[in-house]
Amino acid sequence: MTRPKRFQKVGALLLVAGLAALLLGIGSVWAQTLKVSQPNQQLYPEPNFASTPMGPAPQGAEVKVIEQSGDWYQVEYQGKKGWLHRQAVAESKPGKMGLPGLLTGGPVKEAKGDEVALAGKGFTAETESGFRQKNPSLNFAQVDQIEGFGVDSAKLQAFIKEGGLNP
């Protein structure tokens, strides 16, 4: 006995809806957890450094990813939902070895976040060493001191607001 086309369409829709619900359910079970790898990180209410921080996400904290928007992750940490920049976390793909590891048979030394940022700008530890050798009279202690300066989040927010800056 054949069923009317109307019942076939309803059955197909129910099948698709069921598969979608199953996949969404599996997605929530497989939610990605990341570890904060950089010190002094903050959760933000919006994916924007200019928004007022909601609270700290200390180095070593594990955060549950809710969604990703560009370079930002919306995460849940200690019952709070907020945004964390991708540079605050180290993404790792367990069980996946890159080409260098396959060639050498061992682990590959990972670069630190600041090394990656400097390399992206074309400035690495080797570049700095070469620059120091070519310019021995420059005072690199002052550069190191300036690199160590921090900016208070509240003062930064006040500066942005007072200056009428668009984040």
How would you sum up this structure, described in words?
This protein is α+β, with helices and mostly antiparallel strands. Among the domains are: 31-89, Roll (SH3 type barrels); 111-148, no CATH class. The protein is built from 6 helices and 7 strands. It has a 5-stranded antiparallel β-sheet, with no helix packed on it. The protein has a two-stranded antiparallel ribbon with strand order 2-3. It is extended. Residues 25-29 have low confidence and may be disordered.
Write the layout of secondary structure elements.
Elements: H1 5-29, E1 33-36, E2 41-43, E3 55-57, E4 62-69, E5 72-77, E6 80-85, E7 89-90, H2 99-104, H3 113-120, H4 125-134, H5 140-147, H6 153-162
Antiparallel strand pairs: 1-4, 1-7, 2-3, 4-5, 5-6
Summarize the structure.
By secondary structure, this protein is an alpha+beta fold.
CATH fold-level name of the domain at 31-89: SH3 type barrels
Strand arrangement across the biggest beta sheet: 6-5-4-1-7
CATH superfamily of the domain at 31-89: SH3 Domains
Q: Helical proportion?
A: 40-55%
Based on secondary structure, the structural category is: alpha+beta
Q: What is the architecture of the domain at 31-89 at the second tier of CATH?
A: Roll
Radius of gyration: 24 Å
**What are the low-pLDDT stretches, counting only 5+ consecutive residues below 50?**
25-29
* Rounded average pLDDT: 74
Portion in strands: 15-25%
CATH domain class name of the domain at 31-89? Mainly Beta
Number of strands: 7
The major pleated sheet works out as: 5 strands, antiparallel
Number of helical elements:
6
H and E order: HEEEEEEEHHHHH
What sort of overall outline do the alpha carbons produce when their principal axes are compared? Answer: extended
